Amino acid sequence: MTKQLLLLPGDGIGPEVTGQVRRVLDALDLDIETGEALFGGAAIDAEGVPVSDETVARALAADAVLMGAVGGPKWANQPYDKRPEAGLLRLREAMNVYANLRPARCFSALADASSLKRELVEGLDIMFVRELVGGVYFGKPRGIEELPDGERRGLNTHQYTTSEIRRVARAAFDLAKGRSGRVCSVEKSNVMEAGLLWREEVQRLRDQEYPDIELSHMLADNCAMQLVKNPKQFDTILTDNLFGDMLSDEAAMLTGSLGLLPSAALGEPGKPGLYEPIHGSAPDIAGQGLANPAAAILSLAMAVRHSFGDERAAGRIERAVEAAIEGGTRTRDIGGEATTEQMGSAIVQSL
Ligand SMILES: NC(=O)c1ccc[n+]([C@@H]2O[C@H](COP(=O)([O-])OP(=O)(O)OC[C@H]3O[C@@H](n4cnc5c(N)ncnc54)[C@H](O)[C@@H]3O)[C@@H](O)[C@H]2O)c1
Ligand SMILES: CC(C)[C@H](C(=O)O)[C@@H](O)C(=O)O
Ligand SMILES: [Mg+2]
Questions:
Q1: Nearest to 28, CA basis, from 53, 51, 5
Q2: Are 332 and 326 in contact (CB under 8 A)?
Q3: Isopropylmalate dehydrogenase-like domain: which residues (predicted)?
Q4: What is the pLDDT of residue 11?
Q5: Beta-carbon contacts of residue 233 (< 8 Å; ≥ 6 apart)
Q6: Are 103 and 260 within 8 A, CB to CB?
């Protein structure tokens, strides 16, 4: 049956990298119908909101949604609920995509592009499972308020419930079964109650239902350090929304560039997934043809695997990205001079 893919190019380099995703889709000739909608700042400019109700409805009706990136200086002074990023959070929440898979793999040909020594990163293969629809990103109360003494107070609430922790932990354990079976759960249980509950519930689920999973726990500050000291000690890292955001950007540099890391955000089985490169709209290079489209194209591979169930085509896309890089085509972020378009062409030719 024809699968429905909704493309949300977004802002900055978003349209540049999703343009290359379209070329890969055309070359693959799969049974996929692709639609497109405005998102983020582009939607604010045209429709007055970062994501319209209609776009949310189309996303929920699709099999998968692939986003480029949102945000930029043009919209940075808007109130929070009118910013491009608020559209992304609304979409994640509406789609209830609580398990965000962010694989960080180091291509051998790129081990020298990493900011760490080749021997520390060669063969690196970490799977981050980031909780995506809870924690401090969504907790209430939030806001900035005036205090009687004239001071202002910014407030955000970090919170997790048992069920929110258990469902994402389950996703991590299930995923780890198909990998090495090792999961490291990361929080700050030494200073945060929500972190303590996280640790207890993850351990309880492991003891109740996943006796074969080798579970360890690590404090987030130590994890940030261990990632640059000895990243290959990790297989699957399970963590909350905020720590997952930061640690996955850190891990991107182990692989060579933020422009290489894809992601898949998944909810309950049978529901559409949301796929996005982990990078942002990169205002510093937007519109110059400098963006690396690999993260977006690898996100397409994740969509093809997880939402369309086509492992063969997913592998084909991943091998093509690796072959293009091994063949020497490199955008500037990974030490070359290829444009976004040239990188896309090399990937399409390697399919
Ligand atoms: N999922 C998303 O849509 C998403 C993710 C992160 C940031 N953002 C938004 O993007 C805007 C810019 O944020 P930022 O500058 O902190 O982060 P960023 O990820 O956009 O850029 C960080 C650095 O990485 C580089 N970079 C990112 N992607 C690249 C690519 N594909 N190829 C080559 N280089 C790449 C950029 O040039 C920049 O130097 C902000 O508005 C932020 O909120 C959106
Ligand atoms: C743009 C922003 C809301 C987003 C996040 O913090 O989740 C981004 O940094 C990401 O990594 O997807
Ligand atoms: Mg981020």
A1: 5
A2: no
A3: 4-347
A4: 98
A5: 226
A6: no
Please work out whether the CB of residue 245 comes within 6 Å of at least one atom of ligand 2: yes
DSSP class of residue 268?
S
Active site residue 45: no
Domains annotated on the chain, with CATH: 1-105+258-351 (3.40.718.10), 115-255 (3.40.718.10)
Distance CA 184, CA 236 (A): 6
Residue with CA at minimum distance from ligand 2 atom 1: 85
Confidence (pTM): 0.97
Low-confidence ranges of the chain (pLDDT < 50): none
* Per-chain residues with Cβ under 5 A from ion ligand 3: 245
Given this model, what pLDDT does residue 195 score? Answer: 98
Q: How many residues are listed for the chain in this entry?
A: 351
Question: For tokens 């400019």, what's the residue?
Answer: 45
Structure tokens, 247:
């640690």
Residue with tokens 């990298």, as numbered in its chain: 17
The reported pLDDT for the residue numbered 298 is: 98
The separation between the first and the last C-alpha atoms of the chain, rounded to the nearest angstrom, is: 23
